[in-house]
Amino acid sequence: MKSPRVTLILVSLLATGLLAGCATRPIREERVARDRVSELARLRAELPTPLLQADNSLEDYLRFSLLRHPRVAAAHADWRAAVEAITPARSLPDPKLTFEADIADMVMTLMPGLMFDLMGPGKRAAMGREAAAESDVAYQRYRATVLQVAADVKKTWADLAYLDTALALRAETLTVLDRSLAFAQADYTTGKGMGTLEAQVNAHTETERIRLELANLADQRDATRARFKAALGLRREESPPPWPKRFPSVPLSLDEDALWAQVLRQNPELGIMRAMVGMAVAEVGVARKARVPDIEIGVMADLKADPLMVRPTAAITLPIWRDKIAATIAASENRREAAAARLSAEEINLAAELAQMSAMIREAGRMIDFIDTTALPGIERALDSTRSGYQAGMASLSTLPSLELMALGMRLEKAAAERERARAFADLSLLVTGAMPDGAPVLAADVQN
Hints:
By secondary structure, the protein is of the alpha+beta class. It has one domain (3-249, 265-347): Outer membrane efflux proteins (OEP) (Up-down Bundle). It has twelve helices and four strands. The protein has helices spanning 3-20, 28-46, 58-68, 70-84, 86-90, 123-190, 196-231, 256-266, 268-288, 322-391, 400-431, 444-447, and strands at residues 96-103, 107-118, 295-302, 309-316. A four-stranded antiparallel β-sheet has the order 1-2-3-4, with helices on one face. Helix 8 (256-266) packs antiparallel against helix 10 (322-391) and helix 10 (322-391) packs antiparallel against helix 11.
């Protein structure tokens, strides 16, 4: 008489063990997300972190930063966690082992059981799509983080190049001022000209001002090197990298219509907004499934009864509160409308930012062109004329330092314009393409997806 009970216990234990090894079937959106994770893992494995050397290009620094920076690693881990969350969201609830007994002076009934919760049709798929949409938001945030880190590297690179140039020009300015002071002192000693004492005072004052500026520029370079080191993902106690000395290349012409098309297609912030709209749409799908009832089924067996008694059980939820269901659906639809409105607002804002950045790049380009084609050539002609006049005995060398100072000032203005143009282009590349520069395909297949 005990064999049916033993058999039931063994069957229950076997069923529980088999269920423990079960895997649910993934939805299409989950497969797409996991394929993207796998592809990125393959790309990262194929791109070892470069060893930075003195002749490294900007692309090498970018690759180093994107493969090492903790911000990128954190966003990457958040995205992978969001992808893993799809599986629990679309899976069946865990089955439950139950136990029930009636006890008086002794155990009257002893009823173990196994229960299953079954969601209504389409609910699990809708919840899985919502989780998949959330993972897409996390992916777009990871993508935006990658691009922001790259933009930080490019901007600090431009700052370092400018500061190196400024320090060299200011050191040369000191040399010219020393020569100007010597000429003024010589004129004053020999009694040539008038007001040469004032010229000495002015030259001395300007020399001290340039010395102060040199000290400030040196401090700025130290601070910018610290920022550059941080942009590469290096800790304070780690060895500094070789410092770059070149400006990033900047296109000479901009087609705003083509750039705007790239903004709409590839901008990371728009990617986040679109993913959030998709998540809101999926949330509406989940909310509409609230009308569908859920079912609970199970079976229990009284091991004390003779003959063996089996008790099947079943329960069903009754979604009868129509106002609650309607409010849930309305709230999710309003969130979808809000997400769509935020997407539209972001597009409007990006259009204004594109116009502003394009104007900054053109303005800096015009200044550079003016200095190269008009200002510096004019000063060089004046210098040549003064030197020729001196050789002919018609001019004094004391006028040369002022012209040389003008040339150095123009070269410093050009360096500043080049820095502003490079920084604006770094922001523009983040705004527009959302991709690495040519020749630096760091995670490019994934970033441009």
